[in-house]
Amino acid sequence: MQNKIIGCLVVLGAIALLLGARAGRAQATKPALIITWRTSTFAPADYPGKRLPIAGSPVEAAVQVIDGGKLADLSRQTIYWYLDGKFVSGGEGEQTIQVQAPAFSDSFDLRAQLPSYKGEILVKTISIPIASPEAAIVAPVLGKRIQSSSVRLLARPYFFSVSDPSKLIFSWRINDRPPSSSGEPDVLDMTLEPGGLSEVAVSVALSIQNSENRIEEAVERAIFNFAR
Question: CA 46: distance to chain centroid?
Fold first, then answer.
């Protein structure tokens, strides 16, 4: 009797292992839904990161399904899109969509849903961050201590809704006074007058504004210490 019980347990264990292996293979090959997105805000050519939308920016998104290690054909699949839980659009083969980044928020959720993919419901939600325009002052020194009586500073704009940087207005101030024009709006050449103190602290302010949308503005301030 005991041998029969042991034999039954062995058989049941083998069946459980077999079912577990099959479930693992099924899970491993389960279709995966992927959403990619992009926006067209401006960033310098050497910017290594992903361009982020600002309030009101158009965001283009696309959905794909990886099934069995390959891209699935979704041309006949019904696809629904939701922004922050609200239905935006949907239809057969609607793999791409364009939405506007909402105002007064630091991110928004974008969801794609395939209600009947091979008898399954596939859903994917991603969170897209919303940035604000940024201005950066780039100096050719580490920190803000300058072992010289002159220095060239560069302005770097990020996440403005322009494709052409000439649409941006650059304004510099040194110790709260406008400097003499250098001919290059995104460049500031600072030179200390001869004589005076051996160490001088200089306050620099940079404002960048979108000429086509004046509410898009970013300001950066920095203090540079000259040691002559």
Answer: 15
β-bridge partners, 154:
138, 187
CA distances from 129 to 27, 37, 68, 109, 156 (A): 31, 11, 31, 9, 21
- Please give the Cα distance from 75 to 133 (Å, whole number): 37
Task: Write down the pTM of the prediction.
Answer: 0.80
Contact 79, 35 (CB under 8 A): no
Strand partners, 135: 157
Task: Enumerate residues 6+ apart whose C-beta is below 8 A from 90.
Answer: 78, 79, 80, 81
The per-residue pLDDT for 28 is 56
Average pLDDT over the chain reads 87
Beta-carbon count within 10 A of 82 CB: 18
Residue 133 CB neighbours (<10 A): 24
Alpha-carbon distance values, 30 to 14, 18, 23, 156, 227 (Å): 24, 18, 10, 45, 64
Domains of the chain: 30-129 (2.60.40.10), 134-227 (2.60.40.10)
Contacts of 160 (CB under 8 A, 6+ apart): 41, 42, 54, 133, 168, 208, 210, 216, 218
Instruction: Give residues with Cβ within 8 angstroms of 187, minimum separation 6.
Output: 152, 153, 154, 155
Segment 26-47, tens digit of pLDDT: 455 799 999 999 999 999 999 9
Give the list of residues 6+ apart from residue 34 with CB closer than 8 angstroms, or none. Answer: 63, 64, 65, 66, 124
Task: Report the distance separating Cα 42 and Cα 176, nearest Å.
Answer: 28
